[in-house]
Design a protein that fits this description.
about 100 residues; 434 Repressor (Amino-terminal Domain); elongated; DNA binding; Lambda_DNA-bd_dom_sf
Length: about 100
């Protein structure tokens, strides 16, 4: 059996869990990925923010909140509308 390296500490996830920050970090990470994917698809499709907001049946300020990677206060309805506007479906899974 291989000897464990005594100089290795806990994982970063374990540190965040100990400090109570893991859930928040995960939430922000997920939101950043979603915002990035939507932004990339908008660029590929050459969709302006105004046109994207129209396709989502929402305001441009609501779209700005969706695209803000730090703003995690986004409704499922907004996420679903954004997904449909760029030809995708929203899937949410509890794991």
């Amino acid at each position: 059996m291989a000897k464990r390296n005594q100089h290795l500490g806990s994982s970063f996830d374990e540190l965040l869990e100990e400090t109570g920050e893991l859930a928040e970090v995960n939430t922000v990470s997920i939101k950043r990925v979603i915002a990035w994917e939507i932004t990339q698809k908008m660029a590929t499709e050459r969709l302006s923010k105004t046109k994207m907001a129209e396709l989502m049946h929402t305001s441009r300020s609501a779209l700005d909140r969706l695209l803000d990677p730090e703003n995690t206060s986004v409704t499922l309805n907004t996420l679903d509308n954004a997904a449909r506007a760029i030809g995708k479906t929203l899937r949410i899974e509890l794991a």
